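Support request, please re-run this one:
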Amino acid sequence: MPKNGRVQMETNKVMLETYGQNFTLEQIRTLDAVARWGSVAKAAQELHKVHSAIVYSMKSLEELTGVVLFDRTGYRTKLTQDGERIWQESSKVLLAEENLRKMLSSLKTGWEPRLKIVYDGIIPFDFLLPGFRKLQNLRIPTKISYFSEYLSQVESRFRSESADLMLTVLPPEDLALEVQRLMNLKLLLVAEKRHPVATSSLKLRKQDLQEYTIVNVRGGDFRLQLATRDFDTASQFHVPDFLGKKSVLLEGLGYGWMPEYLIKKELASKKLQKIRWEGTSESTITIYLVTRGDSHLGRAGKMLTSEFRRIQPPF
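Re-run finished. Output below.
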C-alpha cells in the first residue's frame, strides 16, 4: 500500500478515537455556526463570542481531527469536502442535544422551552393566525419562532432549524416524520386580460403556451403535479412570493398558477383570466401538517396542532 494510503488510514483512526473523547458541544456549535453563515464574524455574533475565540475553536478542531475543515481562500469561509461530512454528522449531535433539552423541560413544566414552526408561504394567513394568536394570548413561557419558505425549502428549513411543526404542500422526504392532511387549496392558471394567452379566441395548445414567459415562485416543484410541470418555455420569471407573482401577472409579463383565494377580486373584475388551452387550468394541492410525533411536542406544540386540525379553511 502506498505511504500516503497508510497515513490516511492512521489519520482516520485518530479521528475516530478522539471524536467521542475530545469533541465538545461548544466546538460543534461553533462549527455549525461558521458553516451556516460562511463567516467567522457572523458566527461570533450569533454565539456572542469574540472573533478570536471562534478562530481558535476551529483551529483546535482541525488539529484534533487532523482534517482541514475550511477552505479560507475565498470571500466566504467554505467547508472542504471533509469538513462538510463532519458538519453533517456533528449536526446530529446538536439535534439530539436539543431534543433532550426539550424533553427535560417538558417533563418539568409541560411547556417546551422553544417551539419552531415552518410553513409554506402559499397558506392563507386567515388559517394560520387563530392558532398563532391563541398561543400569544396565553403568555406561555415557550419561545415561539415562525419561518416562511416555499416548496422544498420548507423541509430544508425544518431540518436546519430542528423545527417542531411544518405546514407544507409537499409530502416530506423524511419518511420518519408523521404526516396528516389538513386541507386542499385550489390553484388557477391565469394571465392578465390583455396577454396573448388570455385574448386568444381559440383553445391554445401546449406549444402555444410554451412560447410565452411563465411566472414561478422560487422555481416551482414537479411534485406538485401541475399541468405545466414539463413545459419547456421560452423564458421564466422567478419571484420571491405570491404577492410579487400577482403583481408581475397584472403587468402582463407572463402567466402562471395562483391560489384562487388570492385573486378573487381580480377574477371578478376580469383583470386576470383563466387560460383556455388543451390542458387543465385548475389544480388542487394539499396542505400537510408534519411533526416528529406527539412524543416530541410539549403543551404548546400539541395545542397548536390541535388548533390547526380544528380550524375550517376560510376559503
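The two ends are 69 Å apart (CA to CA). The chain has a mean pLDDT of 85.
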